[in-house]
Amino acid sequence: MDPFVVKNQLRMDKNYWSKVEPKVKEIARKAENFQDWKPGEVLDYAITIASYLVSKDLRTNQIRKILEMVRNVELKVKTGRDEDIRDDVVRIRLLLAYTVGRSQKNTKEALEHLYMVLEPILKKMSEDNNFAVNNFGKFFDFLQAIVAYHRFLGGKEK
To answer: What's the pTM value of the predicted model, to 2 decimals?
Structure first.
């Protein structure tokens, strides 16, 4: 997927979200097998989700809050502390649900779709610490790519 092509499509089509929404739902269905996603798939899915979020006018700061919490857990995993991170993952799930719940009407749908993709991955991590530790770096990279492409594709800060 070429992000420059996506960026041009976003500029030209105000209803771009309607074309991408079925793809986001498909990614959500595939999320239960997150561990099997190849690096190219992770990148394509991140671009697809980011383009959907931009087309729905979601602000970067709304995703960045989630990314910050994920980053703290990523540091814990990276430093090699042999800890159970399931409680941290549960807190991320709560923050994600809270973020969706308190969102304004105009951004709620975008955040709900992001939730649909992230929740199955986080749920699996909260149930299995080995899965969480082995896949958390990939999850962090995925979320970081969504934020990066959101900005690249023209997502606004505030």
So the answer is: 0.90
Residue 26: alpha-carbon gap to chain centroid: 14
Give dist(CA 31, CA 122) in Å, integer: 10
Whole-angstrom Cα distance, residue 73 to residue 117? Answer: 19
Continuous H helices in the chain: 3-12, 16-30, 39-55, 60-78, 86-102, 105-127, 129-152
Q: pLDDT digit string (tens) for 63-96? A: 888 888 899 888 888 887 667 788 889 999 998 9
Extract the residue ranges of the chain whose pLDDT is less than 50: none
Integer Cα distance of 99 and 150 in angstroms? 18
